[in-house]
Amino acid sequence: xxxxxxxxxxxxxxxxxxxxxxxxxxxxxxxxxxxxxxxxxxxxxxxxxxxxxxxxxxxxxxxxxxxxxxxxxxxxxxxxxxxxxxxxxxxxxxxxxxxxxxxxxxxxxxxxxxxxxxxxxxxxxxxxxxxxxxxxxxxxxxxxxxxxxxxxxxxxxxxxxxxxxxxxxxxxxxxxxxxxxxxxxxxxxxxxxxxxxxxxxxxxxxxxxxxxxxxxxxxxxxxxxxxxxxxxxxxxxxxxxxxxxxxxxxxxxxxxxxxxxxxxxxxxxxxxxxxxxxxxxxxxxxxxxxxxxxxxxxxxxxxxxxxxx
Length: 309
Description:
The chain has six helices and 16 strands. The chain is an alpha+beta fold and 309 residues long.
């Protein structure tokens, strides 16, 4: 495996109910990233659909599709054509009445390496994900290619042509345990496909702090684990009757293992590209040996909900 790999992130709008149009914009973004040298390209959470979790509507279940299925078939052909690795986050139908927030990982030859299923599922105003998604879990039987997927309790690392990649999804972002386990499985880079935004009524008071917190937690994962981190977010206002809707704020970013920003977007559609040198992982971990100094004998309490009175 080479010492460097080039990452691409596609930051796009997806508020239209025209799924084909959403996919077409994403495909154009993949092609643009590839034209700039990207070898491993990640799309945003639920990339081909509006963020439908703003309300509880049974008809949205019809958006779910199997993996493999129509969208992954199209993306496998694209990956094969361009010789790129693709992370494709979609609404997965595992079985009748059983749906997941998932990301398919496709290697540069077009082969479907496997699926990561979002482990942490939020339940907040306009983020009603528990209604739509079952979480990934320790007994998850999601598709995985033998020999190229390393896993532990639902967390996975995919050994692609260009890099060993971990995938976590949006709300997973806030949990240091998820990043740590994914790094420990051998990830050189962790991707966080995301759909996060502002409640418009809160933006003036909390908007800047929310974006800062979101950036800080990802940067911390890069530093604490000595890995690259890349997070593509969606952009654009998506309405919801009876509410103020959501304004997705973008700011997709790629960090190196020292927490330095390699590329960053604003709040408009964008394609980010950055080259990652795996030697930085070794160098950072030699100087900040956090993995070496972990007290693995003292962390049993992490399996409890709370240890205070």
